[in-house]
């Protein structure tokens, strides 16, 4: 069976050709997903094939996304694929972070090692491949920063024109800098992420652009490979928990789909529980899971958090994410600005580092372990979604005690490491270091 698009809504499940330009189901407005028949190979054959490709110098095989192409078979040929060798991200053990979280052990799957420094690259190589296949000339996205950085890079590499819509004054500098450097037409809109997304969905048809937000089902296909690569790195041992930050909830949807499909193909024997962590000031999904009526999400009109990547009040993929979290036996937690900031510094002290949104994972783990939801000896993987250098301003402010939460509260540098200004004097410097080493 060739790939198709299917409506995610159980009561609809309408099917469409994979080459139609659709973002929502034309029949019921539901979210869309890519669906496939079974691959020709058995689970064992697939595992052997994917492992063998690690020895290859072929560009597709060197990609941590396209190496697994049998798991995301939406293209009919691979000639148009543009790869920057995305994926291939490490699984890093972090003793100090485990201790901080209350766990015996913890591994980080660090998506910040991607070519543009975030997990968006896994999905973007797929979204851009689909844009090329459809004959698109222009692609666009609304972004809290990382999607735009990633889209700018992949679109330019593919010879497409990139148009980026970002909330003015509300994205980290590292990300804005990337969009400019990679040559995207960058529009800073005076509105928040949710408002701009609504605007751009209206504009998409009118000005002939292909939307590469995570509502695009092909981006979700690429992000599935984060879970696949993690399982392969663990020799297919299934962790008890995968912990990830939640913003627009595309990643939650992708991880859940990947885990279900891996189980259905016999690649793994059981599902992993998903723990989605939101920032307290932007936690509509957290509220949804506690609401008596889960049939609609109450958007947060003015989301607030210094973790700008997840400053989203009306996440589009919530119906998929709800299904994935509940079917995996998962949970949703929320954490404060102080908790995110401290957890981030602890991840830094492991020599690993990440951007603020990513650190919500460790802050969430600490809360879930303290509450008894997560056992101290559980086998846990937390996904760090973005690189430490995405938001250097936040880092400097935290360590120098000048970071303020959006409501004006001072963030305490509980794990702070402020630089010291010293005179050009070896004696005084030696004395200072002697004192601090004692
Ligand atoms: N972490 C980082 C670093 C992100 O950039 C994002 C989302 C998330 C987590 C949340 O992932 O939306 O799949 O739940 N950033 C998007 C952007 C919205 O525009 O770059 P999600």
Instruction: Give the strand line-up of the largest sheet.
Output: 4-5-13-10-11-12
Total number of helical segments?
15
Ligand inventory reads: ligand F0G
User: Helix-strand pattern, N to C?
Assistant: EEEHHEHEHEHEHEHEHEHEHHEHHEHH
* Number of E strands: 13
Biggest β-sheet strands, sense, barrel:
6 strands, mixed
Helix content: 25-40%
Taken from the alpha-carbon principal axes, the silhouette is globular
How far the N terminus sits from the C terminus, by CA atoms, comes to 69 Å
Low confidence ranges: none
Q: Radius of gyration over alpha carbons?
A: 22 Å
The SS-based structural class is alpha/beta
Mean pLDDT: 96
- Range of strand content: 5-15%
Structural topology:
Layout: E1 4-7, E2 15-17, E3 32-35, H1 43-52, H2 59-62, E4 91-93, H3 95-101, E5 107-110, H4 120-133, E6 138-142, H5 146-158, E7 161-167, H6 173-181, E8 185-189, H7 193-206, E9 210-211, H8 217-233, E10 241-245, H9 250-264, E11 273-279, H10 284-290, H11 318-327, E12 331-335, H12 337-349, H13 356-370, E13 380-384, H14 392-399, H15 426-437
Parallel strand pairs: 5-13, 6-7, 6-9, 7-8, 10-11, 10-13, 11-12
Antiparallel strand pairs: 1-2, 1-3, 4-5
Helix pairs in contact: 3-13, 4-5, 4-8, 5-6, 8-9, 9-11, 12-13
The structure holds ligand F0G.
Ligand F0G binds next to α5, α9 and α13.
């Amino acid at each position: 069976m060739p790939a198709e698009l299917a409506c995610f809504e159980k009561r609809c499940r309408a099917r469409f050709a994979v080459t139609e330009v659709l973002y929502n189901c034309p029949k019921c407005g539901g979210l869309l997903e890519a669906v496939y028949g079974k691959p020709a190979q058995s689970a064992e054959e697939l595992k052997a094939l994917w492992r063998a490709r690690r020895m290859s110098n072929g560009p597709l095989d060197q990609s941590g996304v396209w190496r697994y192409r049998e798991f995301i078979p939406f293209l009919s040929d691979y000639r148009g694929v543009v790869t920057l060798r995305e994926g291939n991200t490490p699984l890093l053990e972090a003793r100090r972070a485990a201790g901080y979280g209350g766990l015996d052990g913890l591994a980080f799957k660090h998506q910040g090692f991607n070519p543009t420094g975030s997990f968006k690259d896994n999905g973007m190589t797929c979204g851009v491949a689909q844009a090329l296949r459809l004959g698109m000339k222009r692609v666009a996205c609304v972004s809290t920063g990382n999607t735009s950085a990633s889209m700018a890079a992949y679109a330019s590499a593919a010879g497409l024109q990139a148009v980026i819509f970002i909330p003015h004054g509300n994205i980290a500098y590292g990300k804005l800098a990337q969009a400019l450097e990679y040559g995207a037409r960058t529009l800073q809109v005076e509105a928040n992420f949710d408002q701009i997304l609504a605007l751009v969905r209206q504009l998409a048809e009118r000005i002939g652009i292909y939307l590469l937000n995570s509502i695009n089902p092909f981006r979700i296909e690429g992000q599935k490979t984060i879970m696949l690569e993690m399982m392969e790195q663990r020799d297919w041992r299934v962790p008890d928990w995968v912990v990830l930050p939640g913003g627009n909830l595309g990643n939650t949807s992708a991880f859940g789909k990947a885990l279900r499909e891996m189980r259905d193909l016999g690649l793994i024997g059981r599902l992993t529980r998903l723990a989605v962590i939101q920032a307290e000031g932007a936690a509509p999904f957290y509220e949804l899971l506690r609401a008596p009526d889960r049939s609609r999400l109450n958007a947060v009109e003015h989301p607030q958090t210094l973790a700008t990547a997840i400053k989203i009040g009306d996440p589009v993929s919530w119906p998929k994410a709800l299904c994935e979290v509940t079917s995996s036996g998962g949970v949703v937690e929320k954490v404060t600005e102080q908790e995110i900031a401290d957890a981030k510094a602890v991840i830094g002290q492991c020599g690993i580092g990440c951007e603020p949104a990513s650190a919500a994972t460790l802050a969430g783990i600490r809360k879930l372990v303290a509450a008894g939801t997560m056992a101290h000896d559980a086998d846990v993987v937390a996904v760090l979604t973005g690189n430490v250098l995405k938001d250097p301003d936040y880092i400097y402010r935290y360590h120098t005690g000048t970071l303020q939460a959006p409501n004006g509260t001072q963030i305490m540098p509980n794990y702070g490491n402020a630089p010291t200004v010293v005179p050009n004097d070896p004696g005084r410097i030696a004395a200072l270091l002697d004192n601090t080493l004692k």
